[in-house]
Amino acid sequence: MQFPFINYSYLCTMKVAIVGAGAAGCFCAVNLKRMLPHVDVTVLERGQRPMAKLSITGGGRCNLTNTFRDITHLSQAYPRGWRLMERLFRQFSPQDTIVWWQEAGVPLVEQPDQCVFPRSQDAMQVVGTLLHEMQARGVKLLTQSPVAELPLGYDALVITSGGAPRLGSLSFLSSLNLSLQPPVPSLFALNINFTPLQDLTGIVVEDTIVSLAGTRFQAQGPLLITHFGMSGPAILRLSSYAARHLAEHDYKVTLTVNWMQGRNEEQVRTLLHPYLGTNKKLGNHHPQHLTSRHWAMLLDRASLTANHRWDALNHKEMNRLVATLTSDSYETTGRRTYRAEFVTCGGVSLSNINPNTFALKSHPNIFLAGEVLDVDAITGGFNLQAAWTMGYVVAKSISAMS
In this predicted structure, what is the pLDDT of residue 168? Predict the structure, then answer.
């Protein structure tokens, strides 16, 4: 049985409604009009501004995508939905994204960490480009238009309403009887109530490995010490990989940090061995990638003092120091709460959709894309890439209906 609101008369112009004016929805609208110039496209946005979230991503610079060169397996970037993204990239890849934006008049720049930004470093250039394309191609954009139930009178309906912080936010889909994954936050910093650590606010350690004790969850990258605990790419990635585990434990877990650029205990012993033959004080002679203040805190956590001499370290003291440098443990007290979560883990289960078209299996004229689905990624442009790819694939699928 088909869903009752669908109008199957293609003798007149096909009408398409898109619920949500985020990245996926607006990208879908533009590409659909490129493929089918005469299609009637209406975008419904509950807020006052379209693409409000897009305008503040990347600190307002908009991390559009990633080169993926450092990604050896897509599960590294997409903890949930990597198999689907692997299939979709055959239709619209990260390289296709780069070409699309450059041809749209947005020059791009690649950073050393493989992240791709507009050369202007201005997210509003990205927003403005999509808005201009939508207006030029005749897309109707209706802001302050919340959707309490599925809109009627359209030949195709696209749901790109974004991440839902609560299952209740997806209530307008209740008539579709979809299976849902309970939503929980992803990509957040962690609170740690430890004054000596907080006194180091602003210090960045460029290469760390962070993990959750008793689990296999682990992430690598720069770590930022903050006034509330820890943040930075390593922590954000860990929060993505372990989103459900952290939620289940009320964000109170044991966090372990390797401060030594990924070295194991044996490698750290080798690194420190030349120091052992000197009579210099520990506080004045230490690994160069650690600041003096940070090193002093780590010595204290290893029950050592800055005045202790390297040639006076005994075996037990050396063991404590190495253990602290490679597996420094902290008890987290919660997650850092922002006004709006940037990414949500969970949403509509992927089992509901056709993985080639993004149409619902039960209602083939209803399409879902973006964070409303149970697909999310680590930080670094991967979530926006999923939005571009899904938006494009949905547009292509609808164009094939004509």
Answer: 74
